[in-house]
Amino acid sequence: MSVTTEIQPIGKGPFGDGGVVQGYVSDGWEPVRRAFEENFALNMELGAQLVIYHGENVVVDLHGKSSKQKVYSADTIQNIYSSGKNMEAIVMALLVDRGVISYDDLVVKHWPEFGDGNKSDITIADVLRHEAGVPFFSDPDDMANPWKDTQLTCNCLESIAPMERAIERAGKWHLLGRRHYHAVTRGWLLSGIVRRVDSKGRTLAQFMRDEICIPLQLDIYCGIHPSEQSLLEIANIKNMPFLGAGTIIKAVAGGVSNHVSKRLGLKRTTTPAMNRNHISNNVSHSTSQSEEKSGDEDIKGIDDVISASEVRGVSTCNPSSTTSPGAWGVNTKFPATGDPRTVRAIVKTFTSRKSPILRHNVAEWLLKDCRWVNSVAGRAQEVPSANMHANARSIAKINTLFINEGRVGDTQLMSRETVVQAFSDPIVERDEFINAVCSFTQGGFSRMSDMESSMVPADFKTVYDGFWGWGGLGGSWSLWDPHRRISFAYVMNARTLQTIGGPRGDRIMRAVQAVLDEKGIK
Fold first, then answer.
1. pLDDT class for 298, splitting at 50, 70, 90?
2. Residue 476 and residue 188: Cα distance in Å, rounded?
3. What's the rounded Cα separation, in Å, for the pair 517 and 522?
């Protein structure tokens, strides 16, 4: 039975002002609801959804909105950023299941031109593991200069040809190791393969829609036609009021990474902006009339950023007071945006230039702030790795294929053997682009217990033990535990500074693990 809870704010947080949580949880899952509600009490949410399956049964189905979020329901979709990468991998697994491709196929078997720039030895599994050497579009004629790259403009997405030509021409960039997180480019690489092996010549997004989302009635979209957008309930993404991705980019805009330069033995002679080769000089943001400000502020340095997060994000609740329910067990030591250790690590990763991911972002206009992703034009573009829109119900539903041997409801989407194959050969590797050690299987899925990074809490491996999947910029999660048969989806439209997980998801997952232990689900 659905229950509505009025949430009173108990502290100062970066987003809403309490809110209303609706939905239901099965017996024994009440601690998970309390954790979800606590995020609203701490003013850490605008709109959010949480759906959990155990086996074939939905045991948690919640959604909430703060007083500052006018419209938000269980059906609302929002940009899920890199949580959509799981859908890319599912598309490729379905093609493997149908015998169209194999994970060990060389990409050039299906896309001969991809071999330009010394990439002829790259396999489909390499692409799925972020080891294709195309995290950005480097200049194959000047590989000694890793700062010379090609920057796409949003106008380039209106035609497939310029973007695919940039991929084909790009040099193989393995200068900091084999794995470099393909934050935006992986989906385009995979889509190029899909277009060439699909009998109808469909893109990855079109194939996903026709072969997965429509048959299974999933609200997961990649490229929503403007005429269709008006028929859907879409929530704008909003940055943390005092810290958005734009702030981080501003902080690194003036210099080359000392960390990377030392690794490569390079000396800086020109700025990255001067080295950029633009495919198009017509750089513009296509925005809707209803566009809202991202809320970014011009914070100058690390100390300003940390100070802002610690002062403005801190919870001032008193767990023993009558207006602040002690049952939530809120820890007042840490700011609502995350504990100071991880907050500082995240900011330092970018502002002290220890990671080249923002320096080598082929589409800064996509991640820099929320203007493009909230625009009609932005939502219409196919950027599988960073611009899928979905709700938690749909994400949790599709992920049940991993806990039910390839079956989603009554539909056998793929064979059990294909699922096993997709999870085969997980390789643990350090990734300098995201300043983390992580694993990816040949099918492109990550095991959370392999994650090592100063940007996640010290107990991350314990909190996410047993779970596979990936998360999105700002805090969303698309996860599953195949052994305990749990599918987990958490999405929201309030974007924090976390690049993987965050305090909201951590709080919920701690409650999930406690419930599983209490129920003896091993």
1. very low
2. 21
3. 8
